[in-house]
Amino acid sequence: MKIVLIGAGSAQFGLGALGEIFASPTMRESEVVLLDINSKALSAVDKKCQAFIEEHALPTRVSATTERSVALKDADFVIISIEVGHRFELWDLDRTIPQQYGITQVFGENGGPGGLFHSLRVIPPILEICEDAQRLCPEAVIFNYSNPMSRICTTVHRKFPHLNFVGLCHEVASLEKHLPNILGVPYEQLHVVAGGLNHFSCLLEATYRENGKDAYPEILAGAHDYFESLPGASDFLRDYREKGDLVETEGFVAFQTDREKSFRSWVERGLFKAVIDLLGLLPITTDSHFGEYPGWAHDIVDHQGIVDFYRYYQICLDQAEGKIELVTRERVVPIMEAIVNDTGMTEAAVNIPNQGLIEGLPAELVVEIPARISAKGVRGVPLKPLPPAFLGLLQNQVAVHMMTTEAVLTASKKAVVQTLLVDPVVNKVRGLEDMVDVMIDRQRPFLDYLQ
User: Fold this and answer.
1) In the chain, is it the N or the C terminus that has fewer CB atoms within a 10 Å radius of its CB?
2) Which of the residue ranges 134-148, 304-318, 398-412, 426-440 would you say has the lowest mean pLDDT?
3) In the beta sheet, which residues pair with residue 31?
């Protein structure tokens, strides 16, 4: 098998993915190609990789290239994890410029105006990758880790409907971490179903495997006290300022003095409480991402927590060094194993076109859904009808996603403005066109294709 890692110059992604491939009996004899446009960073990852292979006498053949046509030719699996430009400098513009124009968005990475401009930057290079993949490896299964996940995937499937393009996100793993603590039972004793849109998904069913008893009432009853007991983002930032010593452990960045703490433990309590109490659902996205989509979220989120989380996230990514470990944490390697070995395993969350999987949403919208994985590929599992209020929130995002796709594929500045007009987060009209012009000017050369 041939596996291509796109964005492998990122040490955390490149070295992390390599360790998971090396740990898999099914995948470790593959040919792996590391691809990145940053030759210096790519060379550093490749050097560490070759030394690790030699040290552990591994059979994996690994090469590195900056040439996409070389990397993709006859690939079986492709994994994409890319950003364009300086991540936090551009993200700061995504967050703050819309706020300057009076738009009260939350976080601004995946939803709202910030999510739109992020999409407008990152989707075009991903479409270029997919165009080459359609020519050089049309049967390959392509996994995307880049955000904004659902907007990227919806656009790719509209442009290249025959590609095997699947979005993956780690957020669903929050259920494995939190539910056993809330219920006091191992996760393996639970059957859970979650779905929605990426970063805007909820737990829909939870039962005990032993007797089929509904566990959801107990989850809702215990969720408030449990999440209130967890340290907040401000706690992590304060501790860092006092101790200033970060390490990476068990896949997370944590304090040397307290290895159990992780910035991924932070829960957006204000929004969580509202969703639990008013909708009767538990979001699977435990940080502020869920609040990027509803127009009312800005009124109840923990704003200090968001600011502190953002700063702490920067610190963690700046200080954490990628390394190769022979472990499997991410979901992509087990999925590849299931395809190769035709196991028929169930995966908790993939991002694929709806095609009737969630009643009430259009076929072309990419949704986050459970799936069965076999030699036939990734096949979504239809959900029961969603609670009407949650379905309504998802339906509010349909036009946003469709118009984002339209804006990218037509390179239309007018369509960008129209995407903002249909977004429930946007409650201003005056200044929108000026704001788009400012963003295009500040984010050149990534947005100057828009006319």
Assistant:
1) C
2) 304-318
3) 2, 61
193, 182 Cβ separation under 8 angstroms: no
Any domain includes 149: yes
- Domain tally for the chain? 2
Give the number of C-alpha atoms closer than 13 A to the C-alpha of residue 102, restricted to the C-beta side: 7
Kindly report the CATH number assigned to the domain that includes residue 128: 3.40.50.720
Choose the catalytic residue: 56, 170, 191, 303. Answer: 170
* Domain of 422, in residue numbers: 399-442
Range with the lowest mean pLDDT among 260-264, 341-345, 426-430? Answer: 260-264
Report the alpha-carbon distance of residue 305 to residue 267 in Å, rounded. 9
Which range (106-110, 154-158, 244-248) has the least confidence?
Answer: 244-248
Query: Token pair for residue 166?
Result: 């699947």
- Do the domain assignments include residue 67? yes
pLDDT confidence band for 243 (50 / 70 / 90) = low
Residue 230: what residue type? L
Cα separation, 61 vs 406, in Å, equals: 41
Domain limit, last residue, from 124, 151, 167: 167
354 part of a folded domain: no
56 is catalytic: no
- As a whole number of Å, the end-to-end CA separation of the chain is 42
Q: What gap in Å lies between CA 262 and CA 386, rounded to an integer?
A: 33
Q: For the segment 222-240, what is each residue's pLDDT rounded down to a tens digit? A: 998 998 887 777 776 777 6
Give a yes or no: residue 76 inside a domain: yes
